[in-house]
Specification:
Structural class: mainly alpha
Distance between the termini: 26 Å
Number of helices: 10
Radius of gyration: 18 Å
Strand content: under 5%
Order of helices and strands: HHHHHHHHHH
Length: about 210
């Protein structure tokens, strides 16, 4: 994608969705962190179904700890890898209570020290909770960045660093949401829906998928 086309690409995404938000449901910074941790290799829809029942009774780190590992597993057993995720979430809650007074730390190194929290999860929390212009590269963003030519790379970190350089500052805070939604609903893995895409004009993908 030509550098001159990138602002046009994002201006169109912004026009279509001026205030994009995560599709994960949460009521606090901690609940956001917990939901993102649980969403690894799972769908937001699946995570939301579980957390709608979990968060009303255990929506804080201490409440999760009080629930206990088995109690937590019972609430999230519909989510893939639920046992390891429950273990990580319990350990994270323990650290949050012991070291941060139950609050969520605001730096990447501190977030990445939490069990089960990698770079992508930390980026989501920094962006959604604290408004930082981070790029949480999931499978959708990785695919869209490569397919469109926006920020091609061989691995998520390479794509992330390239996005940080190529996305104009005025679009940086919301960019990762726009790209996720584009990948989830339009620029899909098996068959991109080019005929419905508002930004296909600036996309390098060829040949464009015709309307069915």
């Amino acid at each position: 994608m030509k550098k001159a086309d990138i602002p046009l690409f994002f201006a169109e995404l912004q026009a279509a969705n001026p205030h994009p938000v995560t599709e994960l449901e949460y009521g606090s910074d901690f609940q956001l962190l917990a939901a993102v941790l649980l969403s690894a290799q799972a769908t937001d829809v699946g995570v939301n179904k579980a957390t709608r029942k979990l968060f009303p009774i255990a929506g804080t780190p201490q409440a999760i700890l009080d629930l206990g590992q088995e109690g937590l597993e019972e609430h999230i057993k519909t989510i893939g890898l639920y046992r390891s995720k429950a273990k990580n979430l319990m350990a994270t809650c323990q650290m949050l209570v012991e070291h941060y007074g139950g609050e969520i730390p605001r730096t990447r190194p501190e977030l990445e020290e939490l069990p089960g929290v990698g770079r992508k999860t930390a980026n989501v929390v920094l962006n959604v909770a604290f408004g930082e212009p981070t790029m949480a590269v999931d499978t959708h963003i990785f695919r869209v960045s490569n397919r469109t030519g926006l920020a091609p790379g061989k691995n998520p970190l390479e794509v992330e660093l390239k996005l940080l350089k190529r996305v104009p500052a005025e679009y940086a805070v919301h960019a990762h949401h726009w790209l996720i939604l584009l990948g989830r609903y339009i620029c899909q893995a098996r068959k991109p829906r080019c005929w419905e895409c508002r930004v296909s004009t600036w996309c390098d993908f060829k040949p464009k998928t015709p309307a069915p």
